[in-house]
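Please, structure for the following, as tokens.
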Amino acid sequence: MTSTYAPKTFLRQTSTTLIQECVTALAPTAGVDWNSANENNVEVVYDALLELPDGQRAAIERRFEDAEELANNLGIQALIEEGRFHGLDLTTELADFPSHRDKAMWVAIHYPHVFEVASIINGANTLPQRYWKIRTGMPQHAPNKTATAIASFQNALAAYYRSTQGRGHRCTVDHYLRNDRLHYFFAYPDDYANTYVGHDDRARLVRRPQTPAFEVVFIYDPKEGSIHINAQGGKPVHEALQVIFCRTILEQELPPAKPGGHPYELNGLKSRDFGFPTDPADGIEEVRVRKLRLSVVGASKDRVTLEADSAAHKDRIYDMLTKYLNRENLPDSVVNITQATISVRWVNMGKGRQQTLTFDLTFPDSTSLKNKREELRDVVEKYLKRWGIARV
């Protein structure tokens, strides 16, 4: 369990030698009488730190606060595990230090990157439990950690929060690997803008507009096929974040929570390149998408419907998607296809009217096929499975 940071308590309970190393590194000109400083005379250090410029004082305070957060069994374990990832044996190197605070401070001084990452991971592990939700049955393969994938993830999260909550206009995502298995993704979308009252460098009271970021944490385990997400919001928020993670980082659709949970998967139809392969023996001349209904992930009641002119060329619906859908504000990863109208046309054999079957599919499990001619319906249902639209 972490303790509350109190400056003088921290100075009393941490090696003065380590305090001196830290302060000297971050504020070389600090006027501390180190000959007089010890655990019984911390005011010498404390008073000198108060006289530092704001930037230097803030950097030292942050370092001390982070060390206090790591000064416990879980925190030291986080340091050791992060060190092991970098080929360091911190178990041995920290063995002779008498306290957790000294161990944390020594790592902060000698291995600052290890210290910083361990602080971030430890912070995630101490987040409020009520906001953690787990999803099992995820794809069991390595995530895409390339800059392109991370950028897509950032853009999708920003678009989701912007369209559903009016915040998140920008987002940054950092990735860390733990124990060669657990993938931590820390997302920092913009929060609502606010104005803070504070003092500037000339000690004048000023009002400063600021846009802070809030934190969303994803922990993905490809071996177990599970993901833990810490985010404020109820079930719809967590489900939307699962969808976005799966599409951008795992590069596939989110599997249903239960086997057979949604018989129809329509999101492949967002792509112009979606294929409709058929066997020549079935005599199908053309398959085209005539209408699409789109919803924003997490806001299913907000819908956009595009319906192409039936006399236009086959890919007209995709021309409309390109023309009318702002992909910067709404990338594919935050858009769901919730209804599609598909038309299947058979080759005209010169005997009567050319056969065409037009039907609707609605996510998750509704279709108008049941009212169509049985011999045509059987052929179409066979292909819906082959195309990956029908899951059962």
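Residues 80 and 91 are 6 Å apart (CA to CA). The chain has twelve helices and twelve strands.
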